[in-house]
């Protein structure tokens, strides 16, 4: 299989060897064997169908803000959701938002807040696509996707297109049935409520101000580790003396210890070694095992021995 055959089968340009550093917020990562930007839901569906039909490993991604791509790259077909259509159906003081998988979560949060629709303000600082926000049950400021989602249109593990209700998505803290599964989210619907422009605008400003004051602006993937029950991962890393610690071009942010930043020339390997260092030091000092919130994607060889952290390719 070559990229021109894939291009004609999928009906959208498939590139070979696209650098993944261009498609993730950490700005690291080697080439994708094959790469396609799905600008419509139809292309997204076809890319998945074709990959399944020709037994090519595939993975669908959003903005790459929760992924560490390996320096050696990724086998198979990387499908970026660039389908970003949305529409609002309003009925007096409630509205249903329909959004495609590639819609920008912060853009929608901003746009809807300016129209006086409440429900997504908490997401204003999360640089996510809508589909991946559902996969991760993204959340902030005490709210999350599970609070507002009504249903999603997906391709299930057997390749069938089906609709799931919120309760079928098995949401938990930064978790859903989609994480680590072969299912692909195409679009979803959310319930919003009418609120005063002042109230929604005030929450938006407060959340934006909070982020600016507490989070670094250098390239990162947000929180590297989940907060273990009863702890804050950042506080544990800071207590282990690692704020500002560096491995190559990767650094524990002096602003927020659960954010690891690329200071300019970091490799994925640098970031992985810094992640390991934090896990070891925190375990030594606090006896707590930090579990990554970010995902490791690609070919790591012996670098990732722990089964829970093995890179995962959706094999057809
Ligand atoms: C500065 C910064 C701040 C952040 N703050 C927060 C925060 O406050 N709260 C929070 O929860 N997260 C936060 N994050 C982390 C991150 O933005 C979220 O996890 C987000 O939901 C990931 O979105 P993405 O589009 O980048 O997903 P990606 O990293 O591209 O993908 C994430 C996962 O979803 C899968 N996936 C993507 N799209 C689909 C699809 N359509 N169907 C099936 N699987 C799919 C991917 O394969 C991957 O497994 C932050 C990140 C940064 C960089």
Structure description:
With 316 residues, this protein is α+β, with helices and mostly antiparallel strands. It has seven helices and 17 strands. The chain folds into three domains: 3-81, Uridine Diphospho-n-acetylenolpyruvylglucosamine Reductase, domain 2; 86-214, Uridine Diphospho-n-acetylenolpyruvylglucosamine Reductase, domain 3, CATH 3.30.465.10; 233-293, UDP-N-acetylenolpyruvoylglucosamine reductase, C-terminal domain (Uridine Diphospho-n-acetylenolpyruvylglucosamine Reductase, domain 1), CATH 3.90.78.10. The protein has helices at 3-10, 41-53, 105-114, 130-135, 197-214, 233-239, 268-286, and strands at residues 14-19, 31-38, 58-61, 67-69, 74-81, 86-91, 94-100, 117-118, 139-140, 143-144, 149-155, 161-165, 184-194, 246-247, 250-252, 260-262, 295-297. Strands 6, 7, 8, 11, 12 and 13 form a six-stranded antiparallel β-sheet that branches. The longest helix is centred in the C-terminal third of the chain and has 19 residues, at 268-286. Mean pLDDT is 94; it is low at 306-316. Residues 25, 59-67, 81, 101, 126-129, 131-133, 135-136, 138-140, 178, 184-185, 215, 220-222, 295 line the site of flavin-adenine dinucleotide. Residues 25, 59-67, 81, 101, 126-129, 131-133, 135-136, 138-140, 178, 184-185, 215, 220-222, 295 line the site of flavin-adenine dinucleotide (FAD).
């Amino acid at each position: 299989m070559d990229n021109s055959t894939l291009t004609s089968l999928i009906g959208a340009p498939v590139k070979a060897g696209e650098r993944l550093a261009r498609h993730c917020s950490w700005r690291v990562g080697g080439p994708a064997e094959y790469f396609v930007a799905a600008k419509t839901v139809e292309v997204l569906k076809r890319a998945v169908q074709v990959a399944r039909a020709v037994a090519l490993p595939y993975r669908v991604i959003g903005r790459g803000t929760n992924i560490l791509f390996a320096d050696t790259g990724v086998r198979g077909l990387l499908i970026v959701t660039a389908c970003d259509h949305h529409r609002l159906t309003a009925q007096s003081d409630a509205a249903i938002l329909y959004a495609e998988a590639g819609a920008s979560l912060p853009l929608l949060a901003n746009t809807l807040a300016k129209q006086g629709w409440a429900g997504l303000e908490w997401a204003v600082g999360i640089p996510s696509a809508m589909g991946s926000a559902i996969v991760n049950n993204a959340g902030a400021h005490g709210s999350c996707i599970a609070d507002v989602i009504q249903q999603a249109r997906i391709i299930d593990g057997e390749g069938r297109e089906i609709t799931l209700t919120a309760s079928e998505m098995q949401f938990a803290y930064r978790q859903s049935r989609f994480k680590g599964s072969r299912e692909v989210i195409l679009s979803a619907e959310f319930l919003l409520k009418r609120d005063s422009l002042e109230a929604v605008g005030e929450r938006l400003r407060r959340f934006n101000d909070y982020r600016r004051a507490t989070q670094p602006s250098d390239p990162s993937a947000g929180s590297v580790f989940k907060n273990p029950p009863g702890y804050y991962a950042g506080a544990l890393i800071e207590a282990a003396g690692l704020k500002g610690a560096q491995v190559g071009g990767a650094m524990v942010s002096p602003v927020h210890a659960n954010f690891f930043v690329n200071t300019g020339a970091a490799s994925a390997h640098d970031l992985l070694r810094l992640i390991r260092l934090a896990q070891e030091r925190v375990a030594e000092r606090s006896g707590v095992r930090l579990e990554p919130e970010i995902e490791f994607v690609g070919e790591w060889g012996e670098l990732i021995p722990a089964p829970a952290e093995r890179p995962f390719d959706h094999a057809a």
